[in-house]
């Protein structure tokens, strides 16, 4: 038996032994994501497996299973599911390895090998296009105005007020509300497609069968630029603006050739930038909430990169000049990498 397992892991190990009929199984240390879900490598099975522990009262397993079936049915690469017990919140799934696309990109970045980086991004964008063109978006809930608004409010609540200790004036609230309204309108006016919603290099695993997708359980029907900007303006790795624009333009041309849009480059670029601004404002709030509420301080080190995206886009568009000034004022004398105790 594995040493020092917590009660959930002990229960999951016993379930795995009963399910596979192998008594010599052991669990390794868990890999967690931003939710309460975690993945524990299972030793002693015939093939590499993970025990997915998804506590049903916090992160029900069925949404993950549903989206997994949808993706697999439409030819997307996802971990194979070996066994499930949604009532207890356990699943045995294929272990695709620990090498995610982010590692490949950082290695290529350090070697200054932009040819390899470009090939990776073209492959990933092809995967996004497959998601958008093969899957009927009606199979998932709408990424509607209510949800977009709730996400945006995470930024002033957790980043400005909780993390930076800022007191928002009435004028500040008007600036935020006006900016949020523009971003929501832009998102809802775009073509609505199947959106993975966390499509970045940590959630893509290179395999012999193509890029495998993970952490897809929160998929929604939303704006067609959402997954693209999640990928190209990744919260965990940054690229020169000219590269990002070139990759985004290649994606626009793919949509244009398919006959599904007629957007001019300027219109597409605005939609791309504004969708990214919505996402990165949300992420500023989420990363701080993960620290203060959930005790996951590691996300704070990525705040400067995310804030950089926010400042870059708000500076580029006159419609967000007031938001740009607010964010500059809020963060002018703050060390964003300094973690406060939860």
What does this structure look like?
- The protein is an alpha+beta fold.
- The chain folds into two domains: 23-94, Phosphorylase Kinase, domain 1, CATH 3.30.200; 101-331, Aminoglycoside phosphotransferase (APH), C-terminal lobe (Aminoglycoside 3'-phosphotransferase, Chain: A, domain 2), CATH 3.90.1200.
- Helices cover 51% and strands 12% of the residues.
- It is built from eleven helices and ten strands.
- The protein has helices at 7-20, 62-73, 101-110, 114-134, 145-163, 170-189, 226-232, 241-258, 265-292, 303-316, 321-331; strands spanning 26-27, 31-32, 38-43, 49-53, 81-85, 90-94, 192-195, 204-207, 210-213, 220-223.
- The strands form three sheets. Strands 1, 2, 3, 4, 5 and 6 form a six-stranded antiparallel β-sheet that branches. Strands 7-10 form a two-stranded antiparallel ribbon. A two-stranded antiparallel ribbon has the order 8-9.
- β5 (81-85) and β6 form a beta hairpin.
- α4 (114-134) runs antiparallel to α7 (226-232) and α7 crosses α9.
- The protein is globular.
- The chain starts with 6 loop residues before the first helix and ends in an 11-residue tail after the last helix.
């Amino acid at each position: 038996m594995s040493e020092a397992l917590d009660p959930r892991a002990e229960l999951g190990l016993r379930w795995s032994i009963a399910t596979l009929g192998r008594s010599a199984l052991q669990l390794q240390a868990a890999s967690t994501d931003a939710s309460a879900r975690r993945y524990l490598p299972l030793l002693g099975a015939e093939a590499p497996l993970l025990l997915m522990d998804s506590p049903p009262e916090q992160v029900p397993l069925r949404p993950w299973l549903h989206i997994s079936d949808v993706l697999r049915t439409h030819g997307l690469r996802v971990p194979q599911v070996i066994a499930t017990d949604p009532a207890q919140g356990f699943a045995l799934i294929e272990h695709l390895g620990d090498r995610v696309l982010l590692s490949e990109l950082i290695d290529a970045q350090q070697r200054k090998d932009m040819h390899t980086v470009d090939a990776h991004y073209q492959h990933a964008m092809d995967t996004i296009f497959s998601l958008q063109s093969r899957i009927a978006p009606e199979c998932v809930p709408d990424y509607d105005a209510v949800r977009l608004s709730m996400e945006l409010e995470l930024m002033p609540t957790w980043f400005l007020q909780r993390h930076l200790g800022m007191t928002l004036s009435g004028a500040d609230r008007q600036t935020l509300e006006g900016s949020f309204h523009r971003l929501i309108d832009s998102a809802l006016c775009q073509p609505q497609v199947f959106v993975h919603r966390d499509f970045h290099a940590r959630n893509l695993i290179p395999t012999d069968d193509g890029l495998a997708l993970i952490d897809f359980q929160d998929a929604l029907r939303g704006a067609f630029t959402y997954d693209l900007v999640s990928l190209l303006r990744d919260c965990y790795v940054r690229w020169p603006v000219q590269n990002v624009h070139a990759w985004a333009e290649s994606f626009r041309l793919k949509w244009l050739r398919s006959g599904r849009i007629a957007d001019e480059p300027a219109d597409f670029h605005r939609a791309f930038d504004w969708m990214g601004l919505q996402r990165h404002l949300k992420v500023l709030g989420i990363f701080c909430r993960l620290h203060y509420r959930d005790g996951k301080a590691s996300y704070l080190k990525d705040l400067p990169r995310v804030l950089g995206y926010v400042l870059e886009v708000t500076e580029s568009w006159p419609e967000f000049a007031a938001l740009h000034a607010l964010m500059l004022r809020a963060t002018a004398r703050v060390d964003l990498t300094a973690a406060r105790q939860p």
